[in-house]
User: Which sequence fits this backbone?
RNA sequence: GAGGCUGUAGCUCAGUUGGUUUAGAGCGCUUGCUUGACAGGCAAGAGGUCAUGGGUUCGAAUCCCUUCAGCCUCACCA
């Protein structure tokens, strides 16, 4: 029989030849025996499904001592195991030949010997992967040795139950799948805790010949050995295991040992279980699962019955898995690859808060972080640049300038205008809404969402809308009430932003007003969620949309924002209520730079119209209107609205929808239809008016 | 080989129990704005057959399956 091998020296340890049970070529040889060359050992021909018919010659030499799969085959077929090597990789006594010679040298010698005896059929170049030591790059090949294992069956079941029952919660929760897949009883493997290293904690097992004694101390082991053997043994008669335990074997004690909990339980009783573990999902099994196992193993005993019952014995309540930071080629950033930017240089370029902003805003929960530091194509070096960090830096700049503007205003002792009162009320509501939103994101560890909600609120609502609204005309002072309240809002924003950007927020906090000693942003009371008026928020949103409409018409017609414009609004109950009773007129005029906002019941000449919600507006233009461009614009919008209305009509004419969907959903669709039809009517009118 | 995750705008990503006016943000891009906070800025705009093909449902970016692509973990190539 012809066999193929890349390690001829292991032939000396072969104890069988295996074939696939379905291989027609060799079927008739099953159960017979062959003679291994050189050692002239008679070994059986066995059938095993592991052997691939297509691979190699289809005949597999089986060396249980020097190949993991061969070992398993050996177990299945009760084969003899012959270890042909010494500890240092030279040939051992069991090999029978070349005693004490290095295995790589022997590999060549054996080929020659086989050739001389006429056993070689052919030699071909073959590329295969060779295992190497991470530390020394030495070639590592399997050899059967004694190792210590931890039985995982019960521990795995405990760890699974902890997460399944909700005593430990994963964020994001889809990591449960990976966790389950690894730990379920069909897949879990016993944990090999032996490590062949010269540092670490030596496994506390002592040998006396074939006997082994596991004990806390050497003395205890000796006592056990004496009792067992009945001999008057000395310490020198015992030999301690040379392997050390896997590093994770002590790391899994961390939730307890960090509080010195095995020695004294005072701190442990206070802190254990901790609220959240923040870590990467790549060490879910190495560390997270195993910490959970030890928590349940020792927690009850250490905490005492009452506390255990009250607080639980899980090491932590939540696990927040962060994403892996990767480079633009999606490789994990690591020291060995040298593909990470230099943090200190990044900080020099963008500021610490800028870098924090960049990291956190790109870290959506559980997903990988593709950090945008580009790689130089020529030198392959990572550039210490990042658009995300630049965004953070610009945000700092924005905050600084916003306060700068406020502080630069002269403050006068006069009452706040109606528009300012309205603006402040609105901002207060928007702030409360934002507190609520951010709180919600924190609860579910959506840190990037929390940050971006704050970013948008501060930049778009506070700076672009609110500050512009309360900003007095040039040369005019700001009233004291508006100034003071605005500083207070600013302070609240700094408190909320502080966890993300601690440096600038603390700085501005102290710059904005006199603070007493110890009155620092970092320890200030976080804003509480307060009720807010949704109608007011929606009304203001309508005004903002209207202003955008006016600005767009200015833009398209090449008109300066400084030029005040007359705007008409079709008189409806709603528009009248908004601009007179609710008093948004001043807000609209100031923000849109309107010379006037008049109600009208008919179409006005020389105007360009636009729709906002279901209200119709028209802007008066002194120049000739480009009728063709207007027709195009309105027609495009009209087509869109018609498509929209049609899709809803289709839905509503479907009896099964009307009968099966919840009433609220059907009502909403009906309202959408009405609104859509109202908009179509306005657009249609505007189009007719053009003609 | 086993298992898992992900495919949404040029890029990086949101879209939470299926129904918020036929999909959102930031960056980038286009256009217009230089002197009272900020050009590291302001305003507006363009840009998407939600990878593919099927299914479930009154209704799918969202749930299920197919295919394709990318990534990860574990094992391993005689």
Assistant:
């Amino acid at each position: 029989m012809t066999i193929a091998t890349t390690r001829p020296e292991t032939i000396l340890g072969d104890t069988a030849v295996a074939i696939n049970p379905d291989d027609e070529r060799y079927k008739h040889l099953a159960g017979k025996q062959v003679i291994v060359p050189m050692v002239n050992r008679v070994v059986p021909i066995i059938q095993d499904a592991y052997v691939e018919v297509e691979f190699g010659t289809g005949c597999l030499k089986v060396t249980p001592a020097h190949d993991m799969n061969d070992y398993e085959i050996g177990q299945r077929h009760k084969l003899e195991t012959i270890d042909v090597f010494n500890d240092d990789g030279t040939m051992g006594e069991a090999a029978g030949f070349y005693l004490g010679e290095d295995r790589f040298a022997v590999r060549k010698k054996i080929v020659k010997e086989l050739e001389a005896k006429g056993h070689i059929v052919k030699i071909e170049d073959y590329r295969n992967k060779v295992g190497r030591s991470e530390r020394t790059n030495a070639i590592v090949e399997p050899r059967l040795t004694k190792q210590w294992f931890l039985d995982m069956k019960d521990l795995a079941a405990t760890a699974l139950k902890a997460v399944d029952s909700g005593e430990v919660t994963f964020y994001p929760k889809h990591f449960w799948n990976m966790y389950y897949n690894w730990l379920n009883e069909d897949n879990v493997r016993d944990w090999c805790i032996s490590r062949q290293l010269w540092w670490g904690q030596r496994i506390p097992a002592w040998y006396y010949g074939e006997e082994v004694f596991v004990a806390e101390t050497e003395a205890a082991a000796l006592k056990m050995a004496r009792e067992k053997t009945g001999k008057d043994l000395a310490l020198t008669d015992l030999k301690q295991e040379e392997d050390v335990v896997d590093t994770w074997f002590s790391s899994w004690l961390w939730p307890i040992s960090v509080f010195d909990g095995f020695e004294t339980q005072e701190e442990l009783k206070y802190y254990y279980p901790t609220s959240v573990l923040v870590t990467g999902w790549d060490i879910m099994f190495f560390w997270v699962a195993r910490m959970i196992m030890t928590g349940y193993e020792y927690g009850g005993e250490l905490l005492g019955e009452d506390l255990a019952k009250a607080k639980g014995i899980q090491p932590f309540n939540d696990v927040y898995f962060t994403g892996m930071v990767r480079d633009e080629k999606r490789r994990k950033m690591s020291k060995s690859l040298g593909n990470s930017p230099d943090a200190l240089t990044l900080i020099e370029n963008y500021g610490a808060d800028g870098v924090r902003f960049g990291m956190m805003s790109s870290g959506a929960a559980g997903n990988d972080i593709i950090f945008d530091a580009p790689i130089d194509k020529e030198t392959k070096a990572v550039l210490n640049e990042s658009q995300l960090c630049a965004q953070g830096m610009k945000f700092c700049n924005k905050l600084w300038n916003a306060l700068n503007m406020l502080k630069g205003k002269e403050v006068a002792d006069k009452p706040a205008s109606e528009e300012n009162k309205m603006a402040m009320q609105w901002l207060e509501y928007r702030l409360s809404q934002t507190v609520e939103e951010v709180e919600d994101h924190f609860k579910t560890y959506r840190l990037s969402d929390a940050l971006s909600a704050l970013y948008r609120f501060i930049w778009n609502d506070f700076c672009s809308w609110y500050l512009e609204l309360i900003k007095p005309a040039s040369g005019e002072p700001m009233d004291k009430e508006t100034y003071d309240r605005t500083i207070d809002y600013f302070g609240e924003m700094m408190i909320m932003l502080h966890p993300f950007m601690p440096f600038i927020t603390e700085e501005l906090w102290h710059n904005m007003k006199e603070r007493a000693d110890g009155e620092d942003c970092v320890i200030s009371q976080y804003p509480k969620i307060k009720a807010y008026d949704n109608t007011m928020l929606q009304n203001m949103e309508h005004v903002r949309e209207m202003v955008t409409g006016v600005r767009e018409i200015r833009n398209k017609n090449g008109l300066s924002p400084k030029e005040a414009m007359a705007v008409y609004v079709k008189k409806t109950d709603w528009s009248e209520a908004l601009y007179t009773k609710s008093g948004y007129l001043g807000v609209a005029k100031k923000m849109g730079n309107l010379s006037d906002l008049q109600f009208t019941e008919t179409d006005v000449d020389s105007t360009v119209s636009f729709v906002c919600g279901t209200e119709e507006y028209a802007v008066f233009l002194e120049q000739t209107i480009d009728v063709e461009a207007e027709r195009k614009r309105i027609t495009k919008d009209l087509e869109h609205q018609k498509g929209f209305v049609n899709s809803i009509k289709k839905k509503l004419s479907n009896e099964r929808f009307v009968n099966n969907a919840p009433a609220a959903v059907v009502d909403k669709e009906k309202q959408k239809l009405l609104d859509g039809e109202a908009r179509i009517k306005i657009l249609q009118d505007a189009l007719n008016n053009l003609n």
